[in-house]
Amino acid sequence: MPTKIERILVPVDFSSCSEAALAYAAGLARKVGARVDVLHAWEAPAIPADLPLPVEEFQTGARREAERLLDDLVARHRAADEPVRAHLAAGSAVPTILGQLAIGEHDLIVIGTHGRRGLVRAVLGSVAEEVLRRAPCPVLCVREMARP
After folding, report:
1. Closest to 105 measured CA to CA, from 37, 33, 59
2. d(Cα 143, Cα 132) in Å, to the nearest integer?
3. Is-contact 86 78, C-beta < 8 A?
4. Which residues lie across from 35 on neighbouring strands?
5. Is 133 left (phi over 0), alpha (psi -120 to 50) or beta?
6. Mean of pLDDT values over 65-94
7. pTM score, two decimals?
8. Which of 16-30, 42-56, 76-90 has the lowest mean pLDDT?
9. How far apart are CA 12 and CA 25, in angstroms?
10. Taking a C-beta distance cutoff of 8 angstroms, is the pair 93, 13 a contact?
11. How far is 104 from 106, CA to CA, in rounded Å?
């Protein structure tokens, strides 16, 4: 028996492939009457050695920028009358995404993948792959389509 999709979680890192995943999830949500929760896992950036301002001020500014990017991304979809909500959570990507699943009762994750291979993938790892392996619900990986 098919599972009804009511809540979709879309982790974003503001890359074009995560925006493609959000667009796909929003279209799917319209068709099945689901809600989309857009999640950005925010980590404090590395502190430059020659930082000209207090560390706390630097980190607050970085967090505000992440909030602004997330709000702008979600606003574009709300303007298209899509049922999306923004969530900013502190922490590294995989544990934050899996933690959101534990409390959010999501039926599906739609996540962008860069499609990296070889040494680049080995060095950078793959958030999408780790989520795919560990998520308690179905995961749909979306790769950005090449532009002509």
Report:
1. 37
2. 14
3. no
4. 7
5. alpha
6. 89
7. 0.84
8. 42-56
9. 12
10. yes
11. 5
For residue 120, the model assigns a pLDDT of 43
Using N-to-C axis directions, what is the helix angle for 55-79 and 16-32, rounded to 10°? 40
Q: What is the CA radius of gyration of the chain?
A: 16
What distance in Å separates the CA atoms of residue 109 and residue 59, rounded to the nearest whole number? 29
* Nearest by Cα to 19 from 84, 64, 81: 84
The second-level CATH assignment, the architecture, of 7-44+52-143 is 3-Layer(aba) Sandwich (3.40)
DSSP string, the chain: -PPP--EEEEE--SSHHHHHHHHHHHHHHHHHT-EEEEEEEE-PPPPPTT-SS-HHHHHHHHHHHHHHHHHHHHHHHHHTT--EEEEEEES-HHHHHHHHHHHH--SEEEEEE----HHHHHHH--HHHHHHHH-SS-EEEEEPPPP-
- The count of residues in the chain is 148
